[in-house]
Amino acid sequence: MTSHLLVGGAALLGLLVGSFLNVVVWRVPRGLSVVSPPSACSSCGHRVRAVDNVPVLSWLLLRGRCRDCSARISIRYPLVELGTAVLFAGTAAWAGPTWHLPVYLYLAAVAVALALIDVDVHRLPDAIVKPSYVVVAGLLVAASALEGDWQALLRAAVGAVALYVVYAALAVARPGGMGWGDVKLAGVLGMALAWHSWSALAVGAFAAFLLGGVVGVALMAVRRAGRGTAMPFGPYMLAGAALGLVVGVPTVQWYLGVALA
């Protein structure tokens, strides 16, 4: 019962956070405040009423149109809300009622925002990435203290520096191939992955390049991209990190079992 309540509560929280992330994804790349002014229709300028700001449900009741001018409201809004809810529920089911659940819920929210922004404008804004160092570090310190696992915190520090250095070296070695936004994000992800385990860090780091390479080859195969086509790498870093957390330990155990057999 407790696990069901936790997952259900996380899903509900995800719906609310997803609604806010829609604001973040639109405003942060444009240098606008995410607090004010209140949300308004981009076509007629009318403020969105509170009753029309209920995640997913309002979009369905309005049939995807503005109440005042009938302009279409992109389906991406409810999809982001639903996607965040599913991601939060999955994170809660994976982590369980632990002290480190908050940090991974935070990272799930940041992942949604950064992935969409990177796809839209090919940029990972400092306004999101830099504060994440403080938030993630603070939450991990609290988790280590409450769980009595200071060794995990040491791993987190080493992981943050290690992944940052690797990405920085790639950015210097191949200017234009790796953005500095990716480098900054690498430090945050390295911190969270290594706190969980070295296996999560190793698999998460490798999976990012594997996913990026597979998608890149697929796009070139269908002639949707060429060798010189710029591709946002942030989404692959975030997806790779998720894989590292979920399957990192069993993957490394399987690999070592095969290699040492």
Automatic annotation (TrEMBL):
Gene3D superfamilies: 1.20.120.1220
One GO MF term attached to the UniProt entry: aspartic-type endopeptidase activity
BP GO terms, sorted: signal peptide processing
TM segment ranges: 6-26, 77-97, 103-121, 152-170, 201-222, 234-256
Membrane topology designation: Multi-pass membrane protein
Residue ranges constituting the Prepilin type IV endopeptidase peptidase domain according to the UniProt record: 106-217
Keywords of this entry: Cell membrane, Membrane, Transmembrane, Transmembrane helix
Main location: membrane
Superkingdom as given in the UniProt entry: Bacteria
Pfam families the record matches: A24_N_bact, Peptidase_A24
One cellular component (GO) term of this entry: plasma membrane
Sequence ranges assigned to domain Prepilin peptidase A24 N-terminal in this UniProt record: 12-92
UniProt keyword Transmembrane, yes or no: yes
Subcellular localization: Cell membrane
Keyword Transmembrane helix on entry: yes
Family as reported in the entry's similarity comment: Belongs to the peptidase A24 family.
Protein name from the UniProt record: Prepilin peptidase
